[in-house]
Amino acid sequence: MLRRRWRWAVVALGLAVLVSLPALVEALPAADRDVSAGELRERVLASDDVAFSGYAISTGGLTLPVSDALTGVADLLSDQTSLRAWYRGADDWRVDVVTATGETGTHRDATGTWTWDYADQAASRGTLPPLALPTAPDLLPSALGRRLLSEATDDELSRIAPARVAGVDAPGLRYTPADTAASVSAVDVWVDPGTGLPLRVVVRGGDTTTPALDTRFLDLSLATPDASTTDFRPPPGADIRSDQDLTDVDLGRQERADLPATLADLGRRGFDGVPEQIGVYGSGITVLAVSALPGRAAAALRDQLAATPGAVTDDLGVRIAAGPLALMVAGTSTRDGGTGTYLLAGTVTLDALATAARQIQEAAS
After folding, report:
1. Are 312 and 319 within 8 A, CB to CB?
2. b/e code 287-305 from CB counts within 10 Å (16+ = b)
3. Cα angle for residues 179, 201, 286 (degrees, 5° grid)
4. Integer CA distances (angstroms), 230 to 72, 96, 113, 302, 314, in order
């Protein structure tokens, strides 16, 4: 089970998701503010200490060819998610996923997270590994907006029209990635003018006018929540588990070529604790992750991608696009006659995937 989870871990990199949900209140005209794009971004990045509580809603727009091993992640990327949030600070918050059958709450403290499933009366402890699958708290516009704007440059930023979000006249900011490999055409963020808190985030891919990703607050209070609301202690008799750390997975012993320092003109980045077989390239919203695959996982995943409508199969491997997210299984031959297989995934174009796969092959030969 863990190996199946791992092979899709890189799909999560660069992602937090969602598609628009119409709100009548947003049809009201919104007043703009005289603030530059660069200044608005700085306010967003400084908003991680802004306390709030609120209700947000998201609807995923991506369809991924994943197995039952990652049903939860697939749901986040394709279904509607309702979220209640209480935020006291970066290390002290709570986010509940609200469904028709119950709630699941995630509580953050100084050393990790507790996730509490009310229906199953089960708690799991997470320790914030460097490589992790996306979870519901990643969908909040406050967190997503800061993350996506964190590496945007001034040249990639511009002002757009304001919007009415959660009762606030929110100035708009557009981030247009400059990388030629980018599959995301724009990220639009609407910001609370007083605190810099992102209130709505829309990610657009390619030439389509339909947003690929969208998340927004419907209701928001800037009052500081009580500490008792975000605190969590497992109740007596609760089933307590430990979250799995994807960086501890055995990646197999097959010989593989060293990953290049640059792929598709995207530089490689380093993360403490992430295995050497996993490479992360790019910056901002343009991210490419490359991971070596064990033989059995490679064959099954290759077949799964090849059966996906629109798949491109050639001498480099098989690749698909799901909205702005692209996936590829690519094979290599090593200098000593061995072979290796890699999963490439990210917010890049199919052409960029092909270029990266070719560069991996050249490095191996």
Report:
1. yes
2. bbbbbbbbeebbeebbebb
3. 20
4. 23, 10, 11, 43, 51
Report residue 356 as tokens: 């990266």
The CATH number linked to 215 is 2.50.20.10
Dump pLDDT digits (tens) for 169-212: 999 999 999 999 999 999 999 999 999 999 999 988 876 667 77
Q: What is the pTM of this model?
A: 0.81
Strand, coil or helix: 19: strand
Q: What are the Cα distances from residue 151, in Å, to 70, 243, 320?
A: 29, 29, 27
The domain in which residue 226 lies consists of 2-242
**Last residue of some domain: 223, 242, 261?**
242
Task: In whole angstroms, give the CA distance from residue 258 to residue 224.
Answer: 49
- Tally the residues of the chain: 365
Q: Where are the alpha helices (DSSP H) in the chain?
A: 2-7, 37-45, 71-78, 141-149, 227-230, 295-306, 350-364
Q: Same domain, yes or no, for 238 and 260? A: no
- Residue 16: CB partners within 8 Å, gap ≥ 6? 134, 138, 139, 143, 144, 147, 213, 215
Q: Which amino acid is at 308?
A: T
For tokens 């703009």, name the residue. 32
**Does 247 reside within a domain?**
no
Phi (first) and psi of residue 253, to 5 degrees: -115, 10
Separation of alpha carbons 246 and 354, rounded Å: 26
Return the pLDDT at 224.
98
- Residue 3 CB coordination number (10 Å): 15
Number of structural domains (the chain) is 2
Residue type, 309: P
Place of tokens 């910001």: 191
101 burial class (0-12, 13-18, 19+ CB within 10 angstroms)?
exposed
Dihedral sign computed on CA atoms, order 39, 41, 46, 51: positive
Task: Please return the burial class of 98, using the count of CB atoms within 10 Å of its CB with bins 0-12, 13-18 and 19+.
Answer: middle
Query: How far is Cα of residue 363 from the mean position of the Cα atoms in its chain?
Result: 29
Q: Regarding predicted confidence, which is higher, 254 or 243? A: 243
